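Hi L.,

You mentioned the student needs an example of a multi-chain input paired with its predicted structure. This one should do, with 1039 residues in total across all chains.
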Amino acid sequence: MKRKLSSKTARVTRRTFTTGLGAAGFVAGTAPFNIVRAQGAALKVGVLLPRSGYQAGIGQDCQRGVDITAGILKDLGLPSLQIINADTETNVEVARARAEKLIGEGAQLLVGAFDSGQSSAIAQVAEQKGIPYVINIAAAPPITEQGYKFVFRNFPTAGMILRDAFVDQLEVFTATGGAPKTAVFMHVNDTFGTAMKGGIGAVMPKFDMPYKIVETIAYDPAARDLSVEISKAKATGADALLMVSRLNDAILLTRELVKQRWTPMAILSMGPGWYEDQYLKTLGKLSDGPLSFVPWYDPNKKLSKQLEAELAKAHPGVNLNTNHVYTFEALLIAADAYKRAGSTDPKALADAVRTTNIKDNVSIGPGIQFDAKGQNDKILGGAIQNRGGKLITVAPKEAANGKPAWPLQPYDKRS
Amino acid sequence: MPADIYLNVAIGGVLTGLVYGLMALGLSVIFGVVRVVNFAHGEMMTIAMYIAVTLFGAFHLDPLLMLVPIAAVLFAFGYVLQAGLINAFITRPEHTQFLLLVALAIIIVNVQLILFGPDAQNVQTSYSYDSFQIGALIVDATKAYAGAAAIVVAAALFTFFKYTRVGTAIRACADNYTGALVVGLDVRHLYALTFGLGAACVGAAGVMLVLIVDVTPSLGPAYTLLAFVIVITGGLGSMPGALLGGVLIGLTEAMAGLLFTPSAKSMFAFAILVLVLLFRPQGIMGKRAA
Amino acid sequence: MIARLIEGVPRRALILLGVLLLGLIMAPLVASDYLLTVLILILYFAYTGQAWNIMMGFAGQLSLGHALYVGLGAYTAATLYVHFGIGPWIGLLVAVPVAALAGAFVGFLAFRFRVAGVYFAILTIAVAEFARVGFDHLNWTSGSSGLFLPVAQYTHNDLWNLRGHPAMFYYILLAATVLAFIGCRALLKSRIGYFWLAIREDEEAARSAGIDTFHYKMAAVVISAAMTSFAGVIYAFFYNNLFPEQVFHIVRSIEIILGPIVGGIGTLFGPILGAFVLTGLAETLTAALAAAGVDLPGTKQVFYGICLLLVIMALPDGIWPWLCKRIGLAEREK
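Structure written out for the whole complex:
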């Protein structure tokens, strides 16, 4: 009844691997592909992601980060991980049940789950059972405010994302010499969008931003037609568009911008969507220009280059993004903690995770370490810009590998 | 806000509403005649959308050109579904029909997830980004084409039902089931035909919608609900009613989004629905009293 | 009174019921934590299914928006706890009337204006959706960013504040399900139960026989809503976070009604059996697919849908009536 999937090499993709397993009549209880290292048996890590349901696209993207981890861990001399995958089905109840099941099957550490609601449910189970849980992506602040001892989050909270967004925006304005005087703030009315909106009121006044927000427009996450929202935004006459959206909305909004013949001075996105592969592929030349202020990887770091190479091998044509990076880092933390703890005892593992200090990581910032609440408060957000189907990191200076372009090239002038 | 914004938004709302209306038309036909609560309506539309996307991706065939073939495929699908599976459930209570169609919807959505993956897919024609500018008015080209196509298809359907023998026979079944049997109509075949027609309608709507909207496996349910809202508002058994209901809902949502906060615009559609249910249950243009 | 309740029930049925109850009471002692979580889910759906069954099976009103009552119960109790520190049992005293009021509102709209059948079902969907979007914009309950309850500890069971080990929740839900079961039986055997039967069979005839159908249909809706809200309170304190998108979503309403429909509408044991069958099916499918090495997301749901299809095609009245006859547990008076 147990299913163990060991990510052996990056060559074997998930699909070919599982069809091979199916053909071989895989029997529960055996783990034929376990690589036994000097440390002892591999650490059993349960990875919970929404691989079906409406968050399926993101969950499956995070999965790519899981798939390319094994080779890199080996190169770094870290112990290998025995990954057990689970699908939360974008459902809180299922997330909880799966977490229980994984722990019952012997998972010694949990990683996941992209969504704040599902991550909260898993956190409660992990805390109850005393199994360390490393959150890859989830921005809702309350998760690390519960006093948990076994829950760790290597991802910024909404407040941190906002703070860095403003810092990086100021840097970009200085570098390009251009700055908007007015902005219209559009956000998707879901967990992340409203958290960001709430945060803006608290965080923005601390920075001397050159623009003021003239109007806030919230839209339904399930909206299929955003023409009204863009009409409203255009009518405000604002210079720039400040955005928190998801992938599908980003594509819809851009199309509407083109159709309604409005090119703002800049699109400043503080969330997912505007840099994702689907956005770049679907819109082609129309995708150039938007600036995204998001948790990102530092392209100048050695491990980043390694990760990029592994991803290119396993999934050519896919750009390295937040989903891959933070999922990979969660597993990196697991392997590193295991190495230092020297045992699979959950308390020892949790203590090891708490004292994590990885300077050679992938995401921007001084490295991976956790404060008393289990939050990595040292993560810095970056600013990236779409250029020719690739993503250039334009801020902060230490992590940049290109200069920002300003202002946005008019949509009707792009052939 | 300048006045032309209102006009632009209103026109956009009306055009989108026409496509919604066409989708609802299919449901009105199915529900009005066969009296089956088709909770897989939106999912049937996504089937058409995925077919359009696949054909476009493989052969670069414009969806509007493929409208008739894809509608025909959906017709066959609907016919077989009705004759083979749903027919036994017509006389059964609503909750049983509901479960049958919900199960079907779950299967369709997840087969699509397996076959096409979770990412949104779309069709990018050469005119995808075009818009017509008339003075201060900017009208989205794809919406205009879709709206026009919706009117044409609706008119064709209307003509079919009013002027052909088969169409009249179907209306007879709807009006009086026993009478139809007595008169010797092959009701089973006519029901299957009607379901097929309803499916073809929603298929056509899907083909037009894929020009405006990206398709994901989970797109279906929201449109099923929308279709029901429109059908009830416009009036069961009334084809112009379905179109009118679609336009009304499209327009209301657009204006509500403009005047209030867009994230709450669906509340207005539901408010209209509740009002209609209470005060004019036969819908705006419905003929039969509820 | 007990005699009246078990009148006509064959001895075998009572014995089997007793054995089942005993098994459920002992379960947490032997079950793994994962199994316990699954059982909690089963009991949750058994309880809410039973509550929904009152409206549908007894009074014949198809509600597709029951998530409304779960959500109202959950949010009321959770908000009182988060903002005022009021414990859930007191919160329940507020949550139940709120949900009952909502039920009365829906019932009044529907019955006063003669909205029936599918139209009634759509009305319930509309009200639930209205609540969903409404709560998304309600800042006092944190809107769409989610209401998080402070999670304290798991070491000891605080029954008053509903903080503690899942086993505590299990027993609460078990007690609720048992009480609901007995309560529904009592209702069915009482006058109101017979009036409901008459209304369900033929409302016109019932009305002409002098039964105030409006009054009794309202009673069914209000009782059903009130019962469901209790499940909402438990839900809030078990999962400790609420998002309007998830709590009021139509998918939640559909999950609630699948159990009773599959198990057998209008029967007492149907919702319970349905909950066991469906949750068991879902978990078994997941495990089976995992064991077979199939890693394609969505596969489980396809099989689940196919199973649902087969069940409803083969046994349109539900599994329990069929099972009942097969193992000879049908009530003698029939």
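You could point out the following to them. The mean pLDDT of chain B is 87. Chain B touches chain C through 44 residues (CB under 8 Å).

Best wishes,
N.
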